[in-house]
Amino acid sequence: MLICDDEDGPRESLRVIFKGDYEILLASNGPEAIRLAQENRVDVCVSDIRMPGMSGIEVLDRLRFVDSKIEVIMITAFETNDTLRQALKLNACDYVNKPFDVATIRTAVSNALQRRRLKDNGADSQEKVQTLFAELQQQKMQEQISQARGEIYGCILHDIKGPLTIIGGFAQLIQQHVEGHEPTAEDIQFIRDKVKVIIRQTASCNELTNRYLGFLRQTEGVEGLRVPVNSLLMDLRQLVTGHPSLGENTLNIQPLETEIAARMNGTDLIQILRNLVVNGLQAAPTPHTVEVFGCELSEPLDLSQLKDGPMDRVMNVETFDNIAPLVKLTVRDTGPGVPAEILPKIFQTYFTTKPATKGTGLGLSIIMRLIKQAGGVLHLHSVPGEGASFTLYLPAMK
After folding, report:
1. How far apart are CA 322 and CA 297, in angstroms?
2. Measuring CA to CA, how many Å separate 176 from each of 2, 45, 190, 193?
3. For residue 328, what is the enclosing H or E element?
């Protein structure tokens, strides 16, 4: 309990009344009371209103900035409507006139302490709810990321199955040509041709598996993360070709003119692009076009040009690793665009325009999380009736 009064008599009287129940802090003026509140946890403050220098009303006001949960009881021998109104406006817990009796002041302090406990319990409950919500959100994001990665690697295994089937078929043909008789010159030429095909298909499988095994070994914060962008765009085409959202839509994926590697985990990048492409394919129920294209940037970005606006949202500029070379990748659709009223909310966690059974609202949140980990930035530009483009800028290396 903090007792603030410029007179020794009331200050000592209050100390004697409550010394057996509370740890008492005594202040003879307002500034001293504020200092004690800053240095100690104060549950209840009993303050005189009329004091030289800083009044009790000013003490009450300042204590709200030190700890908004401190309960303040005002005492005075000169009650006026104005001071009463000011005290109530600043949420004083109680107002006691001098001279006060022991029962009255004890009741006032007991009520104040009860209010403080309720505030503490409410704050603890709110903090627990926020912690649980954050943990739930983190868990759902991890589930979404794991699910998407599972789909990606499932598609990769499917892609590997094709070359393996060719290899197995050609191996059987070779076996048929050499079994039971001496190979003729024609058989030998046939075998040579098929072996060349087998070698090419084996190299293709090795390249694909080695690339994605490399992605799996990469972790956050490890130096040397890199993914060849053009190779990844080829994989992206394979991943999306069989997606049900493609339907009658047109998908154009253009390789970069120069070979460059993005400095990030390859699985994360293909997940980002895949999500953006699928979102673009789902942008309208009627046939439309989704394009993926990009280029190398040899100079840092002019960040003054990347600003939020009526048709633009820019995310993660604050932590963007704006050092050349950079790679710019754009996913653009010719759908209806993002409505102006939705644009400010589109990156909020759990926000979705899809039915509850078809969307979790985590897709763009996951994208932003992966981009932030990579030190990239994302620019959304949308024109109503003309479509939307998501442009990703990432640190790169030759």
Report:
1. 11
2. 98, 97, 11, 15
3. strand 326-333
3-state SS track over 380-398: EEEECCCEEEEEEEEEEEC
Instruction: Kindly give the interhelix angle for 229-241 and 102-178, rounded to the nearest 10 degrees.
Output: 90
Let me know: does 10 contact 75? Beta carbons within 8 Å.
yes
Cα 329 to Cα 66, 270, 294, 298, 302, distances in angstroms: 49, 12, 4, 14, 17
> Token digits for 23?
């740890």
Alpha-carbon distance of 150 to 65, in angstroms, equals 51
Strand partners, 2: 25, 45
Beta bridge partners of 119: none
Within its chain, how far is the Cα of 313 from the centroid? 15
Q: What b/e sequence results for 348-368 when a residue is b if at least 16 CB atoms lie within 10 Å of its CB, and e otherwise?
A: ebeeeeeeeeeebbbbbbbbb
pLDDT digits (tens, 9 = 90+) for 293-314: 999 999 999 988 888 888 999 9
Which DSSP letter does residue 95 get? E
Provide DSSP, 277-320: HHHHHTS-SS--EEEEEEEEESS---GGG---BTTEEEE--TT-
pLDDT, one tens digit per residue, over 149-194 is 665 566 566 556 656 776 787 788 888 877 777 778 888 888 888 8
Q: What are the tens digits of pLDDT across the range 110-156?
A: 888 888 888 777 655 566 667 776 676 677 666 766 666 665 566 56
What is the per-residue DSSP string for 331-394?
EEE-SS---TTTGGGTTSTT--SS-TTT--S-HHHHHHHHHHHHT-EEEEEEETTTEEEEEEEE
Q: Which residues contact 32 (CB under 8 A, 6 or more apart)?
A: 4
* C-alpha to C-alpha distance for 169 and 183, rounded to whole angstroms: 19
Note the pTM of the prediction, 2 decimals: 0.50
